[in-house]
Amino acid sequence: MDTVRRATASWSGDLLSGSGTVSAYTTGLFSDLPISWASRTEEPEGRTSPEELLAAAHAACYCMAFSNGLTKAGHPPEHLHVAAEVAFEKRDDGWSVTASRLQVIGRVPGMDRADFERLAEEAKDGCPISRALKGNVELSVDATLEEPEEG
Q1: Which residues face 111 on adjacent strands?
Q2: Are residues 36 and 84 in the same domain?
């Protein structure tokens, strides 16, 4: 059986001067987050955007995929921090999400830098959100392995 999650959005007015809200329907963890065209193309001014929500989804998904890959390689991470930057650009054919750039910093005991970077790339290619975007959006990852703390 498929796992399904739901969200809802409402909009009032035209694209440029209108506004709306987005809510997590399945969990109810957030509701009525304000959205507007300006929050997508200018300053957010306290509103979110589909691109910010996509960045959050990609960062969360990647964290899980990378943690799984590291653990399967025998190096469960102590900590991973992932930032995702989603680019929204106007092109000749209209506005598009053009890139999702991931930055990961990890503390992984016993892991060398080359293996960390290789597994970071594999997680980028294998996480479900990356697979949904692949072929439509430029995907990249910049991986930094933290040095072990002196004890």
Answers
A1: none
A2: no
Pair 115, 57 in one domain: yes
User: Is residue 59 domain-shared with residue 121, that is, in the same domain?
Assistant: yes
Nearest to 58 by CA among 147, 133, 144, 149: 133
**Closest alpha carbon to 140 in 67, 85, 78:** 85
d(CA 49, CA 95): 14
CATH number, domain at 100? 3.30.300.20
Q: What is the pTM of this model?
A: 0.93
Q: For CA atoms 48, 51, 53, 56, give the dihedral sign.
A: negative
CB atoms within 10 A of CB 11: 14
Per-residue model confidence as pLDDT tens digits over 39-92 = 999 999 999 999 999 999 999 999 999 999 999 999 999 999 999 999 999 999
Give the tens place of pLDDT for each residue, 103-135: 999 999 999 999 999 999 999 999 999 999 999
**Domain count along the chain:** 2
Mark whether 14 and 55 lie in a shared domain.
Answer: no
